[in-house]
Each structure stands twice: as C-alpha cells, then as structure tokens.
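Backbone description:
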Amino acid sequence: MIAAPLGSSLPAAGRISDRLRKRASRHVPERIIEFLLFAAALGSVFTTAAIVYVLVKESWVFFQAVPLAQFLFDTQWTPLFDDAHFAIMVLLSGTITSSAVALLVAIPLGAVIAIYLSEFAPFAVREVAKPFLELLAGVPSIVYGLLALGLFVYEFGLGQSILSAGLTLALLILPVVIVATREAIRGIPRIIREGAYACGATNWQTVRDHILPYSTPGILTGVIIGMARAIGETAPIITIGALTFIAFLPPAPFAGDPPAGPFDWLFAPFTVMPIQMFNWTSRPEAAFQANAAAAGFVLVLMTLAMNAAAIWLRYRLRRDIKW
C-alpha cells in the first residue's frame, strides 16, 4: 500500500471544515428562533402566575370578612343591605347557564356544518365557505351582539334573557368550533376512509363509525378554545341588555308557588361575571375592589377546571384510538 502524500489531504480537510462552519452558521438562526419561542412560552407562564398571585392577594382581604362557604353556596347577593349576603352563585348562574346554552347549540350545529363541508359538500362550496368561516372567527364580538339584539331580542321576541345570551355566545363560538372540527377531520388519515369504503361502508357510515370518533379529541380542542372565549365575553352580553345588578337566582324548575315551569329559567333576567367585575372595579371603594378580585379568582378557577376536564377527556379519547 502506498501512503498518500501528506499535502494531498489538506485540501480535503479544508473543505470539510468549511462545510462544518457553514452548517454551524445555519444552526444559529434556528437557535435564536428556539430561544425566542422558549422566552414567549416562559412569558405566558409568568403572566398567568402573576395574574393568579394578584387575584389571590386581593381576594384574601374579602375572604377574611366573608366565609368561603357563604360566598359559594348562599342564594342571595345583597352586599349593600343591612342583612348583607355575598353569594357568588347568583352572579355565576348567568355565566354558567348562558355558557351551557351556547355549548348545547354550538357543538352539535358546528359539528354538523363541519362534517358537511368536509365530507359531503361539493368542492366549490368548500372553497367558498372556508374564507367566510375564517373571517367570521375574527369578527369583533360587539358585531355579534348587535346581530343578536336585532335577531333574538326584537325579531324573535326572546327579550333580555338567558336564552338570548346563550344564543349570542353560540353565534360567537360557532366559527371557532367549525374551523377546529374541520381541521380535526382533515387530520384523519385517508387510509381510514379508503379501508371503510373497501369494506362496503357508505359515506355516512364512514363518517359515523370512523371519522367522527377519531376526530373527537380535535373537536374538543375547538370547544375548549370557544368556551374560554365565551366565558370572558362582555361586549355582546351588554349589547343585548344584561343587568348590572341582580340579587336572586333564576327560578328553579318546578320550584316556588305557583311552581315554575321546566324552562322558565331560560327567560329570566341575568347578569354575567365579567359585567359585575367591571362594575365593581369602576367604583372607588376598596371593598368593591376586593369583591372583584374574589369573583375573578373564582372565574379563573372555573375556567381552569373546565379546561382541565376537557383536556383529560381528550387524552382519554386519544389513548383509546387505534389506527
């Protein structure tokens, strides 16, 4: 074997080192982007922690004067009366009931529209509907409030009720649910559809038995996003005439004398937590600031609890999926 001259290996070594330098220089922008993304994620964590800290600190003053059990389970909100009552459930009932109505309307309706657009609609209809849905998802919430004021409150005669508020919030989150459901359905591998068709399944049987069960975790993601937006909305609810003060819970089904009907609560006047919090923070007294902090703390806990339940359910559904 004849050894190559030592000088002949130097150009090759130089070319290799140049390639390594170029590769390292290409990694620099990637590292910068990774650092920026990490900083953004860390900033969101610190922001959330700071919000929770401020709410806990400010609401501690309120809970020293008002027992937590009374705050959560009392049935009257009369803080300015001689016999003062502090019942967050009176204020929270409007948020819970209107959000429940919104979910009951938006989830099935949004899923049906998304399934039609993804699996049954002609190509031209899909291409026309897609930009409109994305546009509706970004429309300011006050526009939905004005639409609901003319449609639900006056045209349909539902008045300033929980039902009007729920339908308004359903309009608000419907585009989000539709877009998320369509993306979840598009994420199903095509081989699932082809396998179902090869076994003789119809288009509807494929959707019912395969597409919809496999896309349920993704649909829940859209529901979480829409629900988080609906709970904190104030502008459309004020537009349709939500009250700034309410002292009692809506009528329970079959309760009272004479007994209330099973759906009388849908037509009861209402208020929501964000409106009350804004009302309290606009007052100069320190007691109202503490009230707002306590209500905000409960609202954050409720939102986190619902998101955690939805994430847990999504995880369970994904774990049970077998492609």
Summary: The first strand starts at residue 77 and ends at 78. The CA atoms of residues 103 and 214 lie 21 Å apart. The chain has eleven helices and two strands. The chain has two domains: 6-65, 68-320.
